[in-house]
Amino acid sequence: MSQVKVPEGRWSWVEIDRGALRRNLRAYKSLLAPRQKLCCVVKADAYGHGAIECARVLHSAGADMFAVATVREGVELREAGIQAPILILSEPPITAIPQLIEKNIMPTVYTIEFALAYGECAVRAGTVGKYHLAIETGMNRIGVHYADVLEFCRNINFHRGIQCDGVFTHFATAEDVAGWDYKLQCKRFEEAVRALEDAGFDCGTVHCDNTPATMLDPSTHYDMVRVGIGLYGLYPCDSSRSVIKLDPVMSVRARVTRTAHPAMGEGVSYGYTYRVPRTAVQICTLPIGYADGLSRTLSNRMEVLYRGERVRQVGNICMDQCMVAIQQTPIHQIPEAEYGDVMTIIGRDGDAEISADEMARLRGTINYEVVCDFGMRLDKVYL
Q1: What does this protein's UniProt record list under function (predicted)?
Q2: Choice among 187, 270, 272, 339 that is catalytic
């Protein structure tokens, strides 16, 4: 385990491996044809990895565009000096339009009211507002229904203040590219784009692939793909694991803040859901809890790494702290921990590893949520 300078204010942190991030981007680039673009999704603070620093690394490594979820996320990138095109993956409130124009951030468009208001604001500012048109093909979340796109574009295309920079859709079942649902969405999107082009509309950059579709279906790469979770070294589905090698970017670590040897029968943490079963048990406190992304549902069910060995988390996970037990057995001797020793919640320690996927399975969720949660409060250390 590498020695890093940890945050001074708290002994728990997230480590972000810039080198792994670059390697993952290059791996996705290898799947694309020479003129196909890569849009890097950095919403939700780059899935908990730190949007500004990740965007800098990704841009230097060859990212063509960035996608975010909110106006604030886009503004933060601009104010940090990111000059690449930025797309908001939904249509924001009309009240946000002046900021979009000022910061040169492209919205997604799927209502006539927003499109025309966007155009009027752009004209007043002496510019043209670029946008991407979302087409609803089966996700039933956002977008203009695929059967209505031609009429929609005819109702807004007259405005001199707006310009379509791209059209896109989003797949609901891209982990199953052989499935009927996925193929139906592909068909609907292809027909909608063809109808627009046949009518003389310039679609700009055509894109539909999310991370799993990028990996599993080269036929739908079109002009650009949108890659999110995979950039951070996490596979979107099991069927994608054989396509390219990805390196996890995030590790989560903490230092021991207290050690004790409670008497046999003593309880640990709220509710005493764990009691010390014998005398030779060391209880170690780590300053990380459910407010940091370590879900309380993991209480008494997870492990952490210490000196390349797995040790049990015990007792209910608290808001800001949790406890682990180092227990000696005749056949398994683990050195006791000392104040300040490092333990790994997610990541590698020697030959041992605890992955975001393992934690997601224990929580009954997906790796996306695990890393997003850890990124909310913990300080980030970039390697």
Answers
A1: Catalyzes the interconversion of L-alanine and D-alanine. May also act on other amino acids.
A2: 270
